[in-house]
Amino acid sequence: MKKQSFLAFLAVYWVFASLATFTPLFSTPTFAQLEEVIVTARRREESLQNTPISVSAIGASDLRDAGITSLSDLKSIVPNLQVAPTATKSQAIFIRGIGQRASTPELDPGVGQYLNGIFIARQDSQLLDAVDVQSIQVLRGPQGTLFGKNNTGGAMLVTTVKPSFDSWTANSTVTVGSHGRQDIKASVNIPLLENRMGIRLSATVRRLEGYFKNIVDGSRFADEDRQAIAVRFLWDINDDLQLDTFSFWSMQDEKGQANNCQVINAEAAAATFFVPGQPDNYAQRCKQQENLAENREVAINTDASFYRQQSQLHGVKLIWGLGPLDLESITAYSRQYDLGKQEDIDGSDFSLVPNGERLALRALDAAGIDHDQEERYQISQELKFNGRFLDDKLDLTFGAFYSAERIDGFAYPQIIGANGVLGIPPSFLLASTTSISLPSVDLLAAATNTLVLPLLSASVNLSFIENDTRAVFIQGSYDLSRDLQLTLGIRYTEDDKQREVVLYNADFDAFGQREGLIHAQGGIYNPVPRPVFDNINFALPIPFLAPVSTEAERSFDQLSPAFTLNYDWGGDGIDSVSVDSLMTYLTISEGYKSGGLGLRGRRLNEFEPEVVENSEIGFKLEALSSRLRLNGAIYRMDYDQIQVQQAETGPNGPTDVILFLDNAGSAVVQGAELEATLLLNAMQINANLGYTDAYYRDYTVFLADGSSYDRSAEPFAVVPENTRSLAIQYRWETPLGMVIPRLHYSYRSEIFVGLDAKANLYQGATLGAQELYNARLTWLPDDRLRVALYVNNLKDSLFFGGGVALGDNLGTTTKAQVPPRHYGLEVSYSWD
């Protein structure tokens, strides 16, 4: 591993050094050197090249040049970062192979996201649109000491533009393009008190009709309908005290995930099921629609697929100079409400697996059951002290953190089929060992093609969750010599988690009496001819039994240490290879993701925290008179107590499959990354490489029949082995102004998307590699106006960005296409 990475470093350095002798064909301005990049990866401002952490820093101008408009776009320019759709529109974020696929409040994210220093608690609210962003920093590897829990993979720090005290300024960007793209983005800076006070207002509206036509009703999927407003107020109260407040509101009202389906096991349980009035079973319907992706089409029940939410975030930061120490206090409040998330996740127009919070509430409403609406709240308080001591040899950071999160009325359904009604072919039960009181196996075999076993599969639960976190931390960096620095840190975290679940289970007897059926067991009824099954009135409300409540609480604590030793080689002895600066570092650190309480049938199941132990060697290099920047790292992480979803058979027979969360294994994740930037007169080249080698050491789960199964040979889900990116742009002065052409290439190797135990046995559980080309042409006639033309997915290639494969359950892979070729025009204007 180390030898390969070192050779890659030498190869990249040699190529870029050779390019330094290239002479451009046009008369162009010369860039003297790369600008210094300031980061806050260690909770204080310092130069990127002096920070012994693997971090990618993308400033506002870089985001604009690359056409980055949301955090999901970052995966194409940041090594070892993966942002991929799974079964829902709540995308999963992974750094160095560690993240979290499931977007549920039961599980905490594995990659933390911070907006102006405020932690975003839930993964399904992480993909914020880039509203007036000053910079985005992607920190790779566990960040458990200074940033705390749920940063086992890394952290993403988003910072908005600070208000200026000097003058009124404003800017706006209008984007129009194919597929109904219509975006407006604007901001205004207002000085309120000379040299003391200012406010900055910004807003964005994003509209997109959608990339994929739905053959069911002609609607478009992969649409966008989002609005966001941000307000930042800055007041220098005096020379020692500063007040910085921030408020953010956002609203999203879109259709759900645009999935296609592919049959990988036509004999799987649900693949053979059918619904009233439909001649095909699920596998047959999916097979008929497998080629829709080639025409950029989907087949989705629109009324069962939407994604809506509103959120707000408010923060107050006080920075107070206290002699040798600076105190920073961040108080924050966040809320999510008007949540309406529902997904038709079977990838077809078959009514098999609609899922989501709104489906659960609809079922309760139809049954006349009064219930709570889901809302989420969080308050947090952090106190952080920074100071330099011992003749400025010691840079010390310490403090405390507290947060209280409450999730009320989180709804989750297990309703499959047409409002819970499915038809089971008798052959499904022939292969199972069951004590269900039905006709003999011989009679079932004879009736396989003429009779149907009706199944009612419906339950709803509402969760009320409280999470409290307390932590103290300290980290100090001491200059052992002029060139050698030692950093030691430690964080102690306590988590208290409480959960109450109210379960609504279907009244099987009441449903049978209504439809003239005899209930046998587990929602299965007596065999009936197919015409009788087709006449079942599935549009009527599901009858529910009286609710049953269960509750539990659990506490966790963790000590997370960190050690870093870095050496600044300066220019001594390296002038002969045109190296301006070189810093190398060694890091040993630990990350912690909290455990929790998941639902397992009618009881709550406790699962333990995840722990990641990281060892890393890296370097930061500038060369060729500060025209080349080359940063890289090699790492190894031991990943223990991995939180995964498992399955077991419930008390009601083979159709009663219980999914639950538990700890099931340990793994090793190792790899390397390399980032390079070269300024070659008027040409700028940005390149990066990422490599991830992840494998399980122990991964054993329980199957639905109660047996155990070894999954240790299974690939890591949603994690590509290789990523790479290359962007070339050229600044060309013309009589009509500056013209900047840019070409960007990105590659991601294949990814495994299996979820259930045996998905790895099916070839369709792996999505192929993808290569994308984007082009952009920018014209700057003066300092105020910017006009850009862009074409993304230049070759109109068909790739799937993510998905879910269920080989033994659904028998299909549902997968989401990347957008087809799309183009547009951006016009930006600034006022002073």
From TrEMBL:
InterPro entries, A to Z: Beta-barrel_TonB, Beta-barrel_TonB_sf, Plug_dom, TonB-dep_rcpt-like
Domain TonB-dependent receptor-like beta-barrel: 315-794
Record carries keyword Iron: yes
Position of the signal peptide: none
Main location class: membrane
SUPFAM superfamilies (UniProt xref): Porins (SSF56935)
Protein name, entry field: TonB-dependent receptor
The UniProt record lists the keyword Transmembrane: yes
Membrane topology: Multi-pass membrane protein
